[in-house]
Specification:
There is one protein chain. By secondary structure, the chain is of the alpha/beta class. It has a domain of 255 residues: Rossmann fold, CATH 3.40.50.1100. It has 22 helices and 15 strands. The strands form four sheets. A six-stranded mixed sheet has the order 3-4-14-9-10-13, with helices on both faces. Strands 8-5-6-7-15 form a five-stranded parallel sheet. Helix 8 links the parallel strand 6 and strand 7. The longest helix is centred in the middle third of the chain and has 20 residues. The model has no long low-confidence stretch (mean pLDDT 94).
Length: 492
């Protein structure tokens, strides 16, 4: 299976999957996609029921990563999912009403869905370095709105031949997310705050990747750049797995019949998680519609309802910070499927020069055939947290609350009769202050007292990885300006 950049007009620069994972971002600024989408049928889905999550991951990923052997992928998956996760990696069982099913993606070592990809991705990259004969050190460069940073740091810490630097918005992550990153252990890790938002961090990282002078300087030092953000195919591909796995689990549980369509709701900012679900449908997973759930930074909702993407708008800092994004990088991949490379280049050029673009009518119609979109205000987010706990004694974080709100809106307006799988992307304990306040409780000042208060009130257990942060030393305190030049200096 060859991979091409979304901006490669004539498909002149094919890469293997190992090369695409090693490289991360294409030199032309585009994102890598496979030359074709492998197909699965109902028998394939049925065959997953008797397999462990690791076996399912290896079987699905082998369809995409064709230069890896099945045994290599199984070894990677077992290393990722059978030690650092609290029980089954991606359970789907919680019911919120008659129509919603909750896919819990936060049982990994950092209590966020990013673990589902970032526990296996370092293993895939290590193999990629060997497969491509790479002798240089890989420098993983990450921009994070909160969860990716910690998950990447945890996944890549102390791995030979790899260093990692993470940039996060100084005032744009939760206190627990910041503590997770700044206390990170490992001899090959670096964490740095920027005086700006996630988009500033992401833009700076992309400019570093596209800088020929920086690449040359690093090459002279025996270093090359790669990415752990969802712009990297090695990060996105593992996310396809849990949607197919969740469907197989619902069939096995007798909740749906094999072949029955489901809808999928995803809280999204960078569009990677929901795009992985889109790819699962393209492979043959029986999915009706995708519901894109946004917070007050509702740029994706506006795009999916108007066809115009416009980042020239007010930026909001919300209680769902991982979605506080105005540049949704993975949307480019969807545009490639619906419009082709030429149009992608035109749209991205317009975005770079004017901050917006409008897709052609036929492109918009193609997108609308799969996607619905809703956004959730801060007040509705808090109310949803309170309502879900009050009705079902089930605790959800603000990002999941955004998705539940959107799913309820969709069900009320459409009454499709289909089950709706809601992606739950983070433990509520990562956002304990805001969850407590949403439940009408007073939040203590100390972060760990907050965790205890939430545990006592909800009668749920504090996740072990978060409880273990108590007493850890803060290692990283650097804060820099948001311009790409300062990011490059900090990295170098």
């Amino acid at each position: 299976m060859n991979y091409y950049s979304t901006r490669d007009l004539n498909r002149t620069k094919p890469l293997t999957s190992a090369e695409a994972i090693k490289k991360g971002l294409a030199d032309d600024g585009g994102l890598y996609l496979p030359e074709s989408i492998p197909q699965i049928d109902l028998d394939f889905i049925k065959s997953l029921s008797s397999l462990s999550y690791s076996e399912r991951a290896a079987k699905i990923l082998s369809l995409y990563l064709t230069d890896y052997t099945y045994d290599e992928l199984l070894d990677c998956a077992k290393g990722a999912y059978e030690s650092g996760f609290d029980g089954y990696a991606a359970p789907v069982s919680m019911l919120i009403g008659d129509d919603l099913r909750v896919l819990e993606l936060w049982h990994g070592p950092t209590c966020a869905f990013k673990d589902m990809a970032l526990q296996i991705m370092p293993r895939l990259l290590s193999l990629a370095l060997k497969k491509t004969g790479e002798k240089r050190t890989a420098l993983i460069l990450v921009a994070t709105s909160g969860d990716t940073g910690k998950a990447a740091l945890e996944g890549y810490k102390d791995i030979d031949g790899i260093k990692i630097t993470v940039f996060y918005p100084e005032d744009g992550v939760s206190r627990m997310q910041k503590l997770q990153m700044t206390t990170q252990e490992g001899s090959n890790v670096k964490v740095c705050a920027i005086k700006g938002n996630f988009d500033d961090a992401q833009t700076g990282v992309k400019k570093i990747f596209s800088s020929e002078s920086i690449r040359k300087e690093l090459d002279e030092k025996g270093i090359f750049l790669s990415s752990a953000n969802s712009i990297n195919w090695g990060r996105l591909a593992p996310q396809i797995v849990y949607y197919i796995s969740a469907y197989a689990d619902l069939v096995e549980q007798g909740d749906i019949k094999l072949g029955e369509q489901v809808d999928i709701t995803v809280p999204t900012g960078n569009f990677g998680n929901i795009f992985a679900a889109f790819l699962a449908k393209r492979m043959g997973l029986p999915v009706g519609r995708f519901i894109c759930a946004s917070n007050s930074n509702n740029i994706l909702t506006d795009f999916l309802t108007t066809g115009t993407y416009d980042r020239n708008r007010k930026f909001y800092t919300t209680i769902s910070p991982s979605m506080d994004i105005l540049i949704s990088s993975n949307l480019e991949r969807l545009l490639y499927f619906t419009a082709g490379a030429q149009k992608v280049c035109e749209y991205m050029k317009s975005l770079s020069e004017t901050g917006k673009y409008t897709v052609d009518a036929e492109v918009f119609d193609a997108i609308k055939s799969d996607f619905s979109a809703y956004y959730c205000t801060e007040e509705n987010c808090k109310k949803t947290i309170s309502d879900v706990f009050g009705k079902y004694s089930y605790l959800i974080d603000p990002h999941t609350a955004v998705a539940v709100y959107a799913a309820h809106r969709f069900v009320e307006e459409n009454r499709t009769g289909r089950k709706n799988i809601v992606a739950s992307t983070a433990s509520p304990y990562k956002f304990a202050i805001d969850v407590l306040k949403a439940l009408g409780q007073t939040a203590p000042e100390n972060d760990f007292d907050v965790l205890k208060a939430l545990s006592e009130y909800s009668k749920t257990d504090i996740p072990a990885p978060l409880a273990a942060l108590s007493g850890k030393t803060v290692r990283f305190t650097q804060s820099i300006e948001k311009n790409p030049e300062d990011l490059a200096k900090a990295m170098l």
